[in-house]
Amino acid sequence: MNKIEALNGRTFAVKAWGESTEVIVLVSKYQEGGAPAIQLRKNFDFSPFATLTVNIPDVKLGEDEILIKGWSENEPVADAAMKTGWFERTNKIVPTGFAVAEVWRVLG
Length: 108
Prior knowledge:
This protein is mainly beta. It has one helix at 75-83; strands at 11-16, 19-29, 36-42, 48-51, 65-68, 87-96, 99-106.
């Protein structure tokens, strides 16, 4: 099991939109390109909450790297994920339309 897969099933709190929500991490892969996909579900009822990652199939990522959607409504989600200590910024960015995606490294 790699560091990204080891995140599967972990939980953390996201404080956004006037409330705090405990979320559970679900790790999979995007069908197109095979990059890691991280979805977050509400821990109390397993309903969809947010998708932490974004898929840009042409981007080649390192072994423990993920591509983060940290703009718009996902900004507080990405901030909460970074505060867990499970990730570090690589200072690499990837343009995607009118925004940029950040490349993060999973620490475990």
